Amino acid sequence: MQHLQTQTKIYALQKDITEVIEDFTNSFNSLKTKQRYQTVLKQFFELLEIVKLEELADIHIIEVKKCFDEFRKFKSKFDLENKSHLLNPSTINNIAYIIKSFFNYLIDYYNYPKNPLSRYKALKTKEHSSTKSLDRAELLDILKQSKMDYLDILSKSDNIKKHLTKLRNYLIFGLLALSLRREEVVNIKWDDLQEDSFLLIQQK
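^ that's the sequence the OP posted. Answer follows.
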């Protein structure tokens, strides 16, 4: 058994890095996301001059981190009039997240020792939306009004399960239609949403 495990480990390390990247991205449903991840990762490992997974084990983690810093500079766009003003911090954060996620995958599946981007701090990004945010009370009012309207329908319906599903869908579409920001949604506490058993919430 131990001999078989050793053979399997050796075979895994001999895999092309592109094959490992494809294995990693196969878990994504979105074709666009999959292509984005593959493009970033292949470019990064080309810069690192890695072809086989086993070659990564021969490179010190500090060198991998230096390579990322170089890759980040290559992908950064600066204001021509102000060289210190980064124009695409969101893109750089996204690239860092992709590479960091891949190294977490290597840690989980190939026993890679440590993530070289474990201490990466996301860059501050500009708030693009000028829309006034709904406050927590307004959000709860929307939920409560939906509850009242549907309770009235439920009391007159023979197919409660069908209307429960519709209620959940209307709440989701309602929140989307309001164009809520992520921070607005996360400010709603679970206790606020679970006061009644009929309100079904599934966390993404």
